[in-house]
Amino acid sequence: MICPRCGHDNVPGNDTCERCQLDLAPLDQPAAQDRVQQRLLDDRVQALNPRLPVTVAGDTPLRDAVRAMLDAGVGTVLVVGADERLAGIFSERDLLLRVGDQEAMSGAAPVGRYMTPNPETVGADDTLAVALQKMDVGGYRHLPVVKDGRPIGMVSVRDMIRYITRMCQDG
Questions:
Q1: In a domain? residue 38
Q2: What angle is formed at CA 37 by the lines to CA 131 and CA 151, rounded to 5 degrees?
Q3: Into how many domains does the chain fold?
Q4: Any idea what the CATH number is for the domain that residue 78 is in?
Q5: Largest CA-CA distance found in the chain, in angstroms, rounded
Q6: N or C: which terminus of the chain carries fewer CB neighbours within 10 A?
Q7: What is the DSSP string of 106-151?
Q8: Residue 77 is part of which domain span?
Q9: So what's the pLDDT on residue 63?
């Protein structure tokens, strides 16, 4: 990026000018190259019509959390505390990678022991670009949508792909 103060041609990705130390970070805003990119920068997570989250308490037995996932046809449940605030997320991936001890195999262990605590989240007013970036960087297939720390929805990579596909078809 060329520094607007001193004209120095900085290495891409620098947050400050190498010559005059001007903060370049606020100047490096993404710019859409086409209609789809513009929509990702403008449209909000609420446009995905997030599905209602399936929630369980942290002390819910693992077998009941898995049953809730199966009954709802989802790959993730959100774990909430007594105040209904998001405490963690438990996914199919957690089931495969974290559950292996004898107590867990019986299904009696609490889901809170195997959840991913403090998951990455988005708000309904965040842009689709923000949600997509969080999914990409974190390797997440699901993102809880929260308001004041309480889950109000869930979006998935599949939701995002469907939305982008419809955008492309709309011409």
A1: no
A2: 15
A3: 1
A4: 3.10.580.10
A5: 66
A6: C
A7: HT-SBGGGTSEES---B-TTSBHHHHHHHHHHHT-SEEEEEETTEE
A8: 45-169
A9: 92
